[in-house]
Amino acid sequence: MIELKDVTKEYTKGIHALNHINLKIEKGEFVFVVGDSGSGKSTLIRLIMKELDPTSGTIMVNGKNLGRLKHRQIPMYRRGLGVVFQDFRLLKDRNIYDNIAFALRVTEKPTRLIKIKVPAALSLVGLAQKYKSYPQELSGGEQQRVAIARAIVNEPSILLADEPTGNLDPTNSWEIMKLLEEANERGTTVVVVTHNQDIVNQMRKRVVHMKKGNIVSDEKGAGYIHED
Ligand code: ADP
Ligand code: MG
């Protein structure tokens, strides 16, 4: 499903943000990526999104070699991914319904389908009543739930989340992680970058631990490993 083979990323020549990484994530897995700030977690996510290209090595996603994708194929490739960020990234001048509908309109889905899919996605995240609200009228936790609804409305095979609970309190963080786990239970492969030690310890998923551009451990059902 996702495979990195000997992947190196240098933003600056000679400085390895990722250093000969090998990583294989199977369809349907739930994986946490942990590690200190600057260890290469976001670089890993951005390479999988093809927002960046590796300096060397190969990245395969759903059987496709990302290095062989043509420029014009990239938007289509990205639509097969759901992505969630720490800062929500909702469109401030559109209401919640339109924020999610937007993700469907770019794929040219017919309006009658959009009218079914948007409320369904909002129900999944527990916000069916809020469809007319604007992002700034919602709490941080609610905004992140909208971002998840938007990420899953196209039924992506892969959901990538880069510190999705970084701006949230513990209660909201748990709610977001539960939504990601539910998406995983419906069959989506989920990769979550996080610093939330309690959540990693309690959820007992596969944990990929990065340090200075290297994967220093990769264990199923692992707790979070302290740096010091
Ligand atoms: P993390 O997400 O684990 O905090 P990043 O993947 O953002 O780490 O960064 C890994 C390394 O790459 C860091 O040393 C960071 O300074 C460097 N880096 C990240 N983005 C850029 C960039 N756009 N230009 C130059 N260096 C970068
Ligand atoms: Mg980061």
Question: How many beta-strand segments?
Answer: 10
Q: In which range does the helix fraction lie?
A: 25-40%
> Could you give the order of strands across the largest sheet?
6-7-8-3-9-10
**Mean of all residue-level pLDDT scores:** 95
Spans of 5+ residues with little confidence (pLDDT < 50)? none
Straight-line N-to-C gap? 33 Å
Which ligands appear in the coordinates?
A: adenosine-5'-diphosphate, magnesium ion
The outline comes out as: globular
Would you tell me the structural class of the helices and strands? alpha/beta
Order of helices and strands: EEEHEEHEHHHEHEHEE
What does this structure look like?
The protein is α/β, with parallel strands linked by helices and 228 residues long. It has 7 helices and 10 strands. It has a 6-stranded mixed beta sheet with strand order 6-7-8-3-9-10, with helices on both faces. The protein has a 4-stranded antiparallel beta sheet with strand order 2-1-4-5, with helices on one face. Strand 1 and strand 2 (15-25) form a beta hairpin. Helix 5 (140-152) packs parallel to helix 6 (170-185). The model has no long low-confidence stretch (mean pLDDT 95). The structure holds adenosine-5'-diphosphate and magnesium ion (MG). The site of magnesium ion has 3 residues, from helix 1.
